[in-house]
Structure to design on (125 residues):
């Protein structure tokens, strides 16, 4: 059976159990003061690191671009109207407002339509 600390050590043990790692019973001994300083310095370093990480995360969130809601798009040329009423090609609008990038090609249905004789149209299934 473990014995409970008495007096000043009992208070320090209760404080440690409650999470106060740098608790010192007055008058403190040199070892207690050293332990309290070491614990405080470690907690301060952790706090500084947490603040750095939070700042980095805030900066990352500021750079993330997302699209949401309805986008007014021309039914014919597919340009998108921005908030000021200007029309932009869909590729540039989406690139400016998101992390998406585009590469262009032709789907199998468009090849015979725009380049007749170059390739056979895909068979309908």
């Amino acid at each position: 059976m473990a014995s409970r600390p008495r007096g000043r050590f009992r208070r320090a043990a209760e404080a440690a159990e409650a999470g106060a790692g740098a608790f010192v019973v007055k008058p403190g001994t040199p070892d207690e003061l050293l332990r309290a300083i070491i614990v405080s310095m470690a907690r301060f370093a952790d706090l500084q690191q947490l603040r750095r990480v939070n700042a980095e995360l805030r900066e990352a969130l500021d750079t993330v671009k997302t699209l949401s809601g309805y986008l007014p798009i021309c039914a014919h040329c597919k340009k998108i109207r921005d908030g000021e009423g200007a029309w932009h090609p869909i590729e540039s609008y989406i690139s400016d407002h998101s992390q998406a990038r585009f590469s262009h090609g032709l789907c199998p249905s468009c090849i015979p339509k725009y380049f007749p004789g170059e390739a056979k149209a895909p068979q309908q299934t």
Observations:
- The mean pLDDT is 81.
- The chain has two domains: 7-63, 71-125.
- The chain is about 45% helix and 5% strand.
